[in-house]
Amino acid sequence: MKRLLPVLIPMLAAVPAAAADSASDTHVTAVDLTFNLHVDDGNPEQDVFIKTDSTAREVWRPQPGHADLAAPIFASSEPQAHAPLDPTAIGPFPAGQPLGLTLGAWLAATGSGEYRCDGSQGHLEIEFAGLVPNGVYTLWHFFMVNGKTEPFIGSFDLPVGAFDGSQAAFSADADGNASYDQTFASCLQLSGEQLMAGLALNWHSDGQTYGMLPGDFGQNAHIQIYTALPTRPDL
């Protein structure tokens, strides 16, 4: 999700400042959040992979309707750019390490909660279930181009809360449950005419977090569920 063609960088570089002082976003007092899987929206999963047979050296992105929920999932041995709206971008990719989960366990993740904006202060309260037991996670505020993405791919990702990532990190318990409850100094910037904003839950399969960076998607960083944020009320 972090890779963008250079032409988009100037437009997106202003996002943090807008998130801090956009008066229009403060009109929203509360937003209910429901997190989805990629396959819930009819797209391939992006950051976990399956094999066509156990000896294969290549992996593929699981697609909606994949029947074998008992299939083990794998990382890729190389980072993979996100392309959720491209149904042809499913592989093959070089196989990485097994992730110790089945596809069914990965797809069991859920999340719901509320985002509130009070003046210039934002607050998120979210309950997650079905996560990787004892998994290390971070929460990301992402921006993607609305509509057809070609020739623009990927997204611009900011850790929720402090820019050093200190407020974005948390862990699931042994049953795969987690609560995220944070207040931060700036309200989140919402979706606009050209950019869709959202929140994405990132599992770190290496047990490490990377501060203001999400890690290498598909290799050690894996977006499990996400939600879009609504359009700014002034649009």
Which structural traits does this protein have?
235 residues; five-stranded antiparallel β-sheet; globular; 3 helices; disordered N terminus; four-stranded antiparallel β-sheet; mainly beta
If you had to describe this structure to a student in words, what would you say it looks like?
With 235 residues, the protein is mainly beta. 7% of the residues lie in helices and 35% in strands. It has helices spanning 9-13, 15-21, 103-106; strands at residues 30-34, 58-59, 72-76, 93-102, 110-118, 121-129, 136-145, 156-159, 169-171, 178-184, 195-204, 221-228. The strands form three sheets. Strands 7, 8, 9, 11 and 12 form a five-stranded antiparallel sheet that branches. The protein has a four-stranded antiparallel sheet with strand order 1-5-6-10, with no helix packed on it. Strand 5 and strand 6 form a beta hairpin. The radius of gyration is 17 Å and the shape is globular.
Outline the fold blueprint:
Elements lengths: L8 H5 L1 H7 L8 E5 L23 E2 L12 E5 L16 E10 H4 L3 E9 L2 E9 L6 E10 L10 E4 L9 E3 L6 E7 L10 E10 L16 E8 L7
Antiparallel strand pairs: 1-5, 2-4, 3-4, 5-6, 6-10, 7-8, 7-9, 7-11, 11-12
Question: How much of the sequence is in beta strands?
Answer: 25-35%
Secondary-structure element string: HHEEEEHEEEEEEEE
Number of strands: 12
Helix-strand category: mainly beta
End-to-end separation: 26 Å
Report the major sheet: 5 strands, antiparallel
Query: Low-confidence runs (pLDDT<50, min 5 residues)?
Result: 1-26
Rg over CA atoms, rounded to whole Å, is: 17 Å
Helix % is under 10%
Q: Helix tally?
A: 3
Mean pLDDT: 87
Q: Please tell me what the overall shape is.
A: globular
